[in-house]
Amino acid sequence: xxxxxxxTTLPYVNADPHIGFGVEVLQAxxxxxxxxxxxxxxxxxxxxxEHGQKIAQKADEKGEARQVYVDHYAYEFKKLxxxxxxxxxxFIRTTDSEHKAAAQExxxxxxxxxxxxxxxxxxxYCVGCESFKMESDLVGGVCPDHPSTPLEHIEEENYFxxxxxxxxxxxxxxxxxxxxxxxxxxxxxxxxxxxxxxDFSISREKARLDWGVPVPGDENQVMYxxxxxxxxxxxxLGWPEDVAGNFKKFWVEGSPxxxxxxxxxxxxxxxxxxxxxxxxxxxxxxxxxxxxxxxxGQKMSKSIGNVINPYxxxxxxxxxATRYLLLRHVHPFEDTDVTHERLDEWYNAHxxxxxxxxxxxxxxxxxxNLGAPVSVEDAPLEESFVTTLESYRFDEALDVLFVHIxxxxxxxxxxxxxxxxKSVDESVRLEGKVIIEKLVRHVYRIAExxxxxxxxxxxxxxxxxxxxxxxxxxxxxLEK
Length: 480
Description:
Elements: E1 3-7, H1 19-37, E2 41-48, H2 53-62, H3 66-83, E3 90-93, H4 97-112, E4 116-126, E5 131-133, E6 152-161, H5 167-174, E7 180-181, H6 183-194, E8 200-201, E9 203-205, E10 214-215, E11 218-223, H7 225-230, H8 232-235, H9 246-252, E12 255-261, H10 265-278, E13 286-290, E14 293-295, E15 298-299, H11 310-317, H12 319-329, E16 336-337, H13 340-369, H14 383-390, H15 394-415, H16 417-420, H17 426-450, H18 455-467
Parallel strand pairs: 1-2, 1-12, 2-3, 7-13, 12-13, 14-16
Antiparallel strand pairs: 4-5, 4-6, 6-8, 9-11, 10-11, 14-15
Helix pairs in contact: 2-3, 5-6, 6-10, 11-12, 13-15, 13-17, 14-15, 15-17, 17-18
């Protein structure tokens, strides 16, 4: 078995959790649970990104101390993890003292490699992205991701990272199939690198922004939030001291995988990989990029008022159903349009009328007609299911399970064992019991494969089989 490491990006704590991050962290959780089922030793990381200009401004607007402000939102994201039943091993915060120390050590190593220098710079700055923009990045003179946020013209002296030193290295790294999923995102990153790399700013003047990790040896500068935040992927493992050996086990000797949104390609697969190389550290083995969630054909936006809050979903459907809805009905790679109406439809059709109904019917027949629990034991997961899920096709893996749910319904419809048990012919009654036993084993097998997606539901089904008892309603039908 292998040592497997995976991490989400760290959400920025300038607002409450949103459904987009909910999808990312659920995808990571399903993968971590699968790996554990396969016998791997897993380290699953998530947390919060808590420095930068946007956070400082938000805290100042509310009249709160910056640490008090980020403590509140870090708690909100931790609470979401509990609500979604996430199985992470570490929740890291970029305000943690050990993380700050790691970010400063990464800086020192990049500086020792000759990749950090200071120069005066002027340019257009997007507060929303917390980055400078080139003219080629703009659409109609504004940042396409934050069109309502005016760009600021800033002139100051900053430290820069020599990204241009890593042109050849990044081309070689990104030429390896599998380092980025899906494939077209790898091609996107490779095309960007081949277009020529420019050094990027990695600090801000403390006089303008004082909420960040101090630059080693320069009390007038703080680290650019991205340089600081990216370091979490290794600081969470105890780097650089690595007292517990987790960095060596999971990053050096393991197979580190990062989950991120499609707008993160330059940060995760270009900038971060160059920073690792500069510091003499191994590259990320793979980065998986997911699409965005839209609503009624529009990107979710607070100003538009079409944001779907994950807590609203949990309140309406429950944690388990929310996990299912986001893992099966949000496309792993492409953008997905989600509305409350579609969510209700999927819930009733697939959960209340689908798996919930099948388990109820089968276990009711078993409880009424079998004198003892059916003998079952855990078996290896189907190879095709594992391959599909390890390819991040969460939707297709669940499609396979629902084909099996349909097969169970079809077997009941075709054989009608409940009628066979009323026959005067003993052989027919015995055959009916055999069919029920087969159905019980069938739902147990489905439950084994549900663990990465709906762990509590999977356990309820298994427990019902072990007790030979119809469980309480798994998914109550929603009424309009």
